[in-house]
Amino acid sequence: MRIGLIGTGRIGSFHAEALLRHPDVTGLVVADADTSRAAEVASLIGATAAPDVEALFASPDRPGAADPLGLDAVVIAAATSAHAELIGLAARAGLPVFCEKPIALDLPGTIAALGEVEAAGTVLQLGFMRRFDAGYTAAREAVRSGRLGRLHTVRAITSDPAPPPAAYLPLSGGLYRDCLVHDFDILRWVTGREVVEVYALGSDRGPSMFRAAGDVDTAAALLTLDDGTLATATSTRCNGAGYDVRMELAGDLDQLAVGLDDRTPITSAEPAGPTPPEKPWPGFLERFAPAYEAELAAFLQVARGELANPCDGHEALAALRIAEACELSRREHRPVRIAEIVALGASGSGAGAR
């Protein structure tokens, strides 16, 4: 397969190298709004650099497309603000597309992009990599098999070791949409339930850049699932011990933890507790490297029609609605039902937790 990749920053370069290692990829063409960066990355990894992003979507029946690149699929790892437009370009070109989350930073943009994909009859897979992590997969199986019994409590944690650059914050959509949206998605996927109500709070006591951006550096949300299960999701940008992503699931028969290993950046206060990790996880690429590779391998199968889409755009829309509800709850200091958010965009109501 010949793959086009848009965006050659940190995650884009990581994806590019993973694609080149895959035996089914016979060619990789990279593009970036910064053409010099695309050329540099292509030279380093042995890919081809496109003259510009638009060249990836050229076809013989389009003006100026005398030399189409003949791509079989596209991977989008560009800036968030460009995702929706690029998804539309891929859909109109008839190309299957993998896109890092989010589709867009708001409901209208997300729903419009999904409409383009559906009108074109193409495929869109979203990059919620935790669905491909071995620990979360095992947790899903434990819940679905009944091993934990009646699930009563779920605790999700996402903690970054250091804040992102200040310039990133106004473009990120905020902590709920940018970071906790992963927890909202994996909560639905592991439990098979929908969130019906949230109550969320946030703190901006960290670096002043969060207050300047109208964002928070630490957040907590209480989520009620449609069967009455209670879940908490917490996140911070300022976890000095390291990158910490975990999920704890408690039932009336057993309890299970995801992300608890010899690199989890946590120290026990108990005299006989485990020792601190020698090499705590430094970031998301290291922690989820196998999951990132697995989701791209799955996408290649999806693009060939060999596998059902494991995370389509409606799944991303459902997670975004939870994030929107949390942001509204934080601003208005009240519980918010997801039905309020669904009413903001009645079309594309989501495919449900799978």
Compile the SSE list and pairings.
Blueprint: E1 2-6, H1 10-21, E2 27-31, H2 35-45, E3 48-49, E4 73-76, H3 83-92, E5 97-100, H4 107-120, E6 124-127, H5 134-145, E7 151-159, H6 169-172, H7 175-191, E8 195-203, H8 208-212, E9 218-225, E10 230-236, E11 244-251, E12 255-258, H9 284-287, H10 289-303, H11 313-332, E13 336-337, H12 338-342
Parallel strand pairs: 1-2, 1-4, 2-3, 4-5, 5-6, 7-10
Antiparallel strand pairs: 7-11, 8-9, 8-13, 9-10, 11-12
Helix pairs in contact: 3-4, 4-11, 5-7, 7-11
Domain module tally:
2
Structural class comes to alpha/beta
**Low-confidence residue ranges:** 62-67, 347-354
- Number of alpha- plus pi-helical segments: 12
Question: What CATH architecture of the largest domain would you give?
Answer: 2-Layer Sandwich
What portion of residues belong to β-strands? 15-25%
Radius of gyration: 21 Å
Fraction of residues in helices? 25-40%
The CATH top-level class label of the largest domain? Alpha Beta
CATH superfamily label of the largest domain: Dihydrodipicolinate Reductase, domain 2
What gap, in angstroms, lies between the N and C termini? 29 Å
CATH topology of the largest domain: Dihydrodipicolinate Reductase, domain 2
Q: How many DSSP E strands?
A: 13
Largest sheet, spatial ordering of strands: 12-11-7-10-9-8-13
Write the element-wise H/E pattern from the N-terminal end onward: EHEHEEHEHEHEHHEHEEEEHHHEH
For this entry, what is the oligomeric state of its chains?
single chain
What would you call the shape? globular
Largest sheet: number of strands, sense, barrel closure: 7 strands, mixed
